[in-house]
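Thread: Newbie trying to understand structure tokens

Hi all, I'm a second-year student working on a class project, and my supervisor (Dr. K.) asked me to get a predicted structure for one chain before our next meeting. I've only ever worked with sequences, so writing a 3D structure as a token string is new to me. If someone could post the tokens and maybe explain what I'm looking at, I'd be very grateful. Here's the chain:
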Amino acid sequence: MYNLLKSLRLSLILLFIFSLIFLFAKYLLLPIIIFMFIMKFLGYFKFKKPINKKSNNNRDNNSKIIDAEYEDID
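---
Reply by user tm_fold:
Sure, no problem. This is what the structure looks like when written as tokens:
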């Protein structure tokens, strides 16, 4: 009798695990695979980030920083 309950419990656990795998494959696996193919396809093209010459000059950036410490006005 104990073996029957043990095998029934094992079958329920396996059914639960397989149902989770099925739901994952049904709703998430296909979009993940499509996303991977799109990323591989876009990887063949090399996109370069445009360089902003103004952001390289740190001396000008230091003068633009605003100090946040203010005294209370009475």
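A couple of things are worth pointing out once you decode it. The chain has a mean pLDDT of 79. The helical segments are 2-43, 58-63. Feel free to ask follow-ups in this thread.
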